[in-house]
Design brief:
The structure is a homodimer of 704-residue chains. Chain A has 704 residues and is of the alpha+beta class. Helices cover 17% and strands 32% of the residues of chain A. Chain A is built from 14 helices and 36 strands. In chain A, the strands form seven sheets. In chain A, strands 6, 7, 8, 9, 12, 13, 15, 16, 20 and 21 form a ten-stranded antiparallel sheet that branches. In chain A, strand 29 and strand 30 form a beta hairpin. The radius of gyration of chain A is 26 Å and the shape is globular. The termini of chain A are far apart. The relative contact order of chain A is 0.09. At the A-B interface, helix 8 and helix 9 of A face helix 8 and helix 9 of B.
């Protein structure tokens, strides 16, 4: 299918927006994506049930040192196909995932330069993905990218839930505003971080959730970010056109490409039902199948840890105050005095192991176990940790043996301080140490500015590193939970030992400065689109003064909602983040955390509105148990739940952990009720969530 | 010893150049170094036999983000000491080295900022070293350096042998000129290189050899370059003041320092006898003692290799022309056709092994043995080599077995293409492969721009890497010969498995474009000050057309001088670089290369003048044999050699390989004579070197 310019001009004459040469629609016909070359520029548009989602938008890349891949294109060929399969994730929200799309593969030529570029569209019932493909060819082998110019032209001044575009942090609170208000609100949307680099007053991050005035939910993100830099969106707020804005390297180059290659998928999800945004598997489906033959060693994890004592409690990762400047090469901690505020000590960790064993947790995370924390941070220090040497008061041998004797594992912690060359140099030894002592999961961290200096957290260099850490870990059968790494884009389908990421404001910010009460009603629409988040819920004591007199922190959530997060924030890795003392005070509520599953056969989103509320129901893996969670924003939420997902006619006991009537996230967060009810698939439950509140329900069959 | 400003002012009044508060002289008293704080600035000067070497010059560092370490200093204390020891190098020009110096340790305070910096001077009979030391302190823990401002004020418009300052290459021909002429000659002093970054029209590299009008030889370099960036010199050519100019990183930062720390030594060698420059051990002495307990596995190496066929002969490192773009991840060479110009094949390598075995060489280097060479270069490619996978026509198993059966080893080759993260990721596997097959030496290479992109070959990041490669190799008992790495600064004392470096124009440039005939009369004064060079001499066919019809290359040397280089260019690693066919044509001359030692008990420099000639005599390690070499520049050289270094009264046979009378490097380079003579310690030899010529002598006792 080859169109001459004359022919195109004639076609274009027929429509103000252009007449498109090629079209593909979703299997259900609701979504249509059109493509054409308009005056030499690749152009697409997208609609949903006849409503515009993406107005005509151009595609292309600006290169460094050679002619851009922006214009002078001609269509060579368009191929259509359909794909439908059902696959089983190693872990997930559902035991089976259907991957059903229609594809339009557009082959383009740039005749003046003898070059070729293709664009592949895949259209699902809930959205579409497009990516650039660069076949091997004579006049395009290696090229540095100055910028990718993928446009997403919005059809109106939508409402968006956004965080500031930044090359180095995603740890911002979400702002809800019109697109036209982003510029004015940008300053107030930014808080300080150990490493941060904004680039534009209208720059935002993906996944970006929007809602149109006529009730369409639109989400822009990317899938399968491999060996490329992470995409942000920059808004032309006169025309409401978003354009891709890649993360640069130390020299300002945005990507290095070697043909044959392709970009990650650029995704647009759309529905008139907010729940479809949450239920979508589009991002996972656009990723490659699992790369590992044996995945038997990958297992969801529920864990506690030596962490909140430091984050919220003011204790230290470090061991001593005697070392203003640490050089690991010639360091002898035995000559230093412990400051006594180091919870990663043998006795305390043993206490956590006992707690984990008693309550059925799989693992105990211990942060601050290894030498170097005395000056780990903010100094552009290269050799900051060796990842293998424990502090003198952490008996690594004994503690692992003790944990194993109780059916528990320790979870490893590798803070890199952003010094990535150093981490890679020590990685093999670090993973070997884990093998030796029986660790099978590591929480890694990338706090602070990156080394190699000038590189950014979300650039191609680091994205390559994060995946390297995951694939190297796989050789040791180790699962990875990387904090401060790039936001996930569904790679956990291909590399399912990537069991978690942070990549957003987690619970720790409740101790630092507080998240907005609506935070957990937004995250599943945005951050969680790409993969699970190690959100670390389960905080029972909201007044941080209670564990640290110097703290002004407050957890902007009711206790009941803390339980709900184990259901609403899907993750195969769930922490009970509070200290054992606080759980001991509320053992009846803690029962829910003990009961709740971390892997699922089925998930349903019952009610959802970004920034307002999310209600999810999930059926535990291999069990007839269901768990329901509701998280609500500032206004609270009233639910009228139909339990029609239960087996017909079967009787269940529902245990409902709900906000008490006078509960409020600010001044009465620990007011909750626990109610037991017999329910069936015909039951309806009317439940109320307080402001910043929620509820959690466990539903178990009575006939077992 | 604390001077107030008032006191200093009074003292300064007494002298135009200032009166110095502290002084230290060399053990023989010829060199004096004075130090004082002048108007708050650390200042030193240096003289030799009463003649000025360094006029008053200031010391200091400009920092980023905090107050400079430039001024407002006060002297706190000065400590004097003397040190005298004799140590044994693992390999070297002499079996014993005396390290005898007087030290002046100046402790400075910067009272307005509560900070401390010390300067340590060590003065030898043949020069001095100074370095900055930064003790651990409250107000100076980590600091980035904008520039180090160490001045070297010259006392006149000296003659210098210099190459252009460059962050990425040292492969320039030397220019001989007055200091004042550098600016005008800079453009013509620069030739193209795969990676190069000049910084100033008066920027030059160290080691910089100079000569004053009154006959002093002065050399500026650095010693013990560890975890810091490499120093260049920038000339203020109005005042003839050199100042240190460090190599920046990707962000323009010149060094990152964590206290306690110190800079490398900045060295100034001086003598009125050029031979003292060559005989000096000052650079080695300023390095730390050997870091390894066991050094029994480190052995000098004489080798041949599959290399000149490509460099001079136009053959290929690559295997096929079928792959315009190589991705190692999914590559199958078995589907490609070998282009037939790949000398690293089993049959040809076997031929080199046979040749090495027949003529007593230790090793056979093979370049182009491993996959990836089809697009290795100039593309900023990250994953360019895996360092473990041989080409299909290189039977690594068989060839190593075959070599070992003949008492020969293969030498490994690791070209990194400057992609250093990739090399570090594969390093352990690469060294393990070497262990498996019995390789114990690797030639590594860093051709092209560096990755991490924006980093330079001589910056702190890469200097850290080069040393990492050496110390990791030591864990495998592997010796390293790194090409395109930073110029050596005596680190081979501490890490003697660093048996070679390139770091200058080697013989390969004879094939590319030719080195000046004087090149090898300069290198021992400059490049070799820091450590041995893998110069790869021994070219017998000077007309490159003879092995490659497409070549216009010519080796600017006579054949006799090629023999001499094995003596004049000291190295424990010596290649016979030409192809076996060319050696077979001149077996009588080749005998010298077979005979000459690669490790020595004693070395003497008999005659020397930079740019003109060098005559060296060396006594073979553990033997009573002496080898003499002479290399001469454009004018040739006539020697009158006293053999008084021979054992008194003993008779020796001298075999003299000399230029024939009509020899000339340009049009008659292969005209040589071989003469046998009986000599004693009373003998005098009158010998003539042709233009670009030289001679070589082996002297063996007749009474054995």
């Amino acid at each position: 299918m080859k169109f001459s310019y004359v022919c195109m001009a004639l076609l274009l004459a027929g429509s103000a927006r252009g007449t498109f040469a090629a079209e593909v629609s979703s299997p259900d016909g609701n979504i249509k994506v059109n493509f054409s070359v308009v005056e030499g520029r690749p152009t697409y548009e997208m609609s949903y049930k006849g409503k515009p989602v993406i107005l005509p938008s151009t595609l292309g890349l600006e290169l460094i040192g050679s002619t851009d891949l922006m214009d002078k294109f001609e269509e060579k060929n368009v191929t259509y196909s359909e794909f439908d399969e059902t696959w089983q994730p190693v872990w997930g929200e559902n035991k089976e995932i259907r991957n059903h799309y229609r594809e339009m593969f557009v082959e383009l030529a740039q005749p003046p330069h003898g070059r070729f570029m293709n664009i592949r569209f895949r259209v699902y019932d809930d959205g579409m993905g497009l990516r650039y493909e660069f076949p091997q060819q004579q006049y395009l082998d290696y090229f540095p990218v100055r910028e990718e110019h993928t446009q997403f032209a919005m059809a109106g001044d939508h409402t968006a839930w956004w965080i500031a575009g930044d090359y180095d942090t995603q740890e911002y609170d979400y702002t809800e505003s019109r697109l036209s208000e982003i510029r004015g609100l940008m300053k107030s949307a930014i808080c300080s971080n150990a490493s941060q680099t904004q680039f534009s007053p209208t720059g935002v991050q993906t996944s970006l959730q929007m809602k149109t005035d006529d009730g369409l939910y639109i989400n822009i993100h990317e899938a399968a970010l491999v060996n490329y830099s992470c995409m942000h969106l920059n808004l032309d707020d006169k025309n409401m056109v978003f354009e891709s804005w890649l993360t640069p390297d130390a020299q300002g180059v945005k990507a290095y490409v070697q043909t044959p290659d392709h970009t990650p998928w650029r995704t647009v999800m759309v529905s008139d039902d907010a729940r479809d945004m949450l239920a979508s598997n589009l991002i996972l489906n656009l990723n490659e199948p699992c790369a590992y033959e044996d995945t038997s060693w990958i297992k969801p994890v529920k864990y506690v840890g030596v962490w909140w004592e430091m984050i919220g409690g003011g204790k230290q990762w470090s061991y001593t105050y005697d070392l203003p400047s640490v050089k690991l090469d010639n360091l002898d901690y035995s000559k230093t005095k412990c400051h006594g505020e180091h919870p990663a000590n043998t006795e305390n960790v043993k206490r956590y192991i006992d707690f984990a064993a008693e309550h059925g947790f799989d693992q105990v995370l211990v942060e601050g176990w290894n030498v170097g924390w005395e000056d780990w941070f903010g100094k552009s220090k290269d050799y900051v940790f060796d990842f293998v040497t424990p502090y003198p008061d952490f008996d690594i041998d004994y503690l692992n043996e003790y944990a194993h004797s109780k059916g528990v594992r320790l979870m490893m912690h590798h803070e890199t301080s952003g010094s990535v060359r150093n981490y890679e140099r020590h990685m093999e030894a670090a993973y070997n140490l884990m093998d030796k002592y029986g660790y099978n999961a590591v929480k890694s961290g990338y706090v602070g500015n990156m080394i190699p200096r000038g590189e950014h957290h979300y650039g191609q260099w680091l994205n390559n590193h994060y995946l390297y850490a995951v694939t190297e870990a796989a050789k040791h059968k180790i699962m990875v939970n990387a904090h401060e790494a790039v936001r996930p884009t569904g790679l956990c389908r291909t590399y399912p030992n990537l069991i978690g990421n942070e990549s957003a404001r987690g619970t720790e910010y409740e101790a630092f400065a507080g998240n907005k009460p609506s935070h957990t009603t937004v995250l599943p629409f945005t951050r969680l689109q790409g993969g699970p988040m190690d959100y670390t819920p389960g905080i029972f004591e909201m007044d941080m003064k209670k564990i640290n007199p110097n703290s002004a922190g407050h957890v902007n959530s009711t206790l009941a909602r803390q339980l709900a997060l184990y259901v609403t924030m899907y993750s195969p890795l769930q922490m009970a983040a509070d200290i054992p003392e606080n759980y001991n005070r509320f053992m009846d509520a803690f029962q829910f955390i003990k009961d709740v599953a971390v892997d699922w056969d089925e998930s349903r989103y019952l009610e959802a509105e970004p920034g307002q509320y999310i209600v999810a129901a999930r059926k535990a893996k291999g069990k007839d148990e269901w768990y329901v969670g509701c998280t609500a924003g500032e206004k609270g939420h009233t639910s009228d739940l139909k339990l029609d997902f239960l087996d017909k006619g079967r009787k269940y006991e529902a245990v409902i952990y709900a906000d008490a009537k006078d509960a409020h996230y600010l001044d009465n967060p620990q007011a909750y009720t626990i109610t037991r009810k017999t329910v069936t698939d015909k039951s309806r439950l009317k439940l109320a969530a307080a402001p910043g509140g929620g509820y959690a329900i466990s539903i178990k069959p009575l006939d077992l």
